[in-house]
Amino acid sequence: xxxxxxxxxxxxxxxxxxxxxxxxxxxxxxxxxxxxxxxxxxxxxxxxxxxxxxxxxxxxxxxxxxxxxxxxxxxxxxxxxxxxxxxxxxxxxxxxxxxxxxxxxxxxxxxxxxxxxxxxxxxxxxxxxxxxxxxxxxxxxxxxxxxxxxxxxxxxxxxxxxxxxxxxxxxxxxxxxxxxxxxxxxxxxxxxxxxxxxxxxxxxxxxxxxxxxxxxxxxxxxxxxx
Length: 226
Fold this sequence. Notes:
By secondary structure, the chain is of the alpha+beta class. It has 6 helices and 11 strands. The longest helix has 27 residues.
């Protein structure tokens, strides 16, 4: 019989797991990892810099596989989209590795977020606590995310990055660029992932407490505890 068990700690863990997964997914898909130096729409790109022309200055953004630029003939604002159609077209080998590690971590986080929704009704899988299993998966995902974020700055020396950040851009040196919100979101999501991994133990304790067992023995199917 399915016993629906809802506790503050288990619901908080579920909510944080979903936030971490969506935060990392949104950051990965965003083009706002690097914010380039100011330029005009009809600027001439060159690794040594850019020659300014008439027009309102703006700052292009560059993501792991996408970018946002303003074109001279485009009157509707900034054009955003992928610059890499195929995996091999990503700016550098380091960013390709970053993509693999981040994608693996996000896949695990999304799987845990999906499973966490059903933990109210199912607390074990193959006689193993579902919270402990999910916490382990979140810990592994966090390691993947850390590896991806550590490799990401190593790709700043690529030709693609120098077009946006100038010739001074080099591995672990962003040149004229500044970090965009997506990078900080990915970092925050990674920290939250480890918080969830640790907090999963508290969710397990809350749903297997003596108070829960007493209410199950009383024949209750819906159990709500603070």
